[in-house]
Amino acid sequence: MFGYKKYKPKKNHFLFSLFLAGCFQVNVEPIQENDQYRYFWEGKVVSHLKNPYLISPSDKELNFIDFPERNLIAYNKLTSIYPPLSLAFWASFSAFDYKTMLIINQILFLIIYLIFCSILLKAHQNYFFLALSSMTFLKEFVQAVHIDLLAGLFLLLFFIKLRNNKVLYALNFLSAQILTKLLGILIVPFLLIRNQKKLLLIVLYAMIPSLIYIGLALTNTSNGPSEFIKSWKWNSLIYEILLYLNLDHNTTKLLIRSIYLISYILVLLSFYKKKISFLSSITLVFATLFFFTHVYNAWYGIYLFIPAYLVGNLGFVLYSIAGFLGYLIYDYEIHFTIALMTHLFFFWGCIEMIKNKDKENIKF
User: Fold this and answer.
1) pTM score, two decimals?
2) How far apart are CA 89 and CA 65, in angstroms?
3) CB 304 within 8 A of CB 119
């Protein structure tokens, strides 16, 4: 389709072109973003041995921390929602001021992005998919320094090590992914089915980072995680449709989570019965998650992009980068239209998966 398989430049030339494009994202204030203020603030809070899961940015107890951009933190009465490895990452740059932290993170994420692309190309060469995704990912991960790139790198390394039958190495990377962003936990039931001889090992490697996060973040005074679950809404098609049907927000959230749970179980059963491959299962798990979620930010797409790239599904690759359309909501009050534009790619990906029947799947 579109001749994309024929696009094969020299690898070093391709990576150098990404490097040049990424250089234009460095020392540029993130466009239509404010998450970086919270990232750097929470890094400084941790470096001062304070707990951002218990104390929000608005708390006067933290007035001694020097961070002039503190007033720019969105939802400053909410505590942190980020797993501990993310906080530790930001804390490592906390000695610097905001501008210096931003530039250091942008340079570091550009390097990580080039490593990420190089590993993907070594696993499976598809320059078209990478070139396509770079238009979104360079903005989200280099300019806007979203931590999901680091989580995505861990997820990619998990897949690579798993493919090479290095299960212990793979589990280490999966644990690191969960400690950076929690979404890797969705893979664990599929991993248990795939590697039944290592059930206890898999459970331990999944449970320990999850329990660390739960123990730290889910306390009586931690309002960040609960508010994200209850209150956020961004670029969600199903959510907009249900609201149009005059359902209240609480009922809508309960319904879409129930539908996703059903879809997750169906995919899991299909994998258990060997009707679908491991990679295709994970692709569908993340695709349906973003289709039924009430929040689909552009940087979330990397979790879908990785398995979709390895499977060779153009529709889901496009869906993984379509979240950038959500930025239009800032300027246009046509939420349903923008959500429809974003989520139509989900159907393309499903149709393509049915027709391809895993023909291009990298064997696991």
Assistant:
1) 0.93
2) 18
3) no
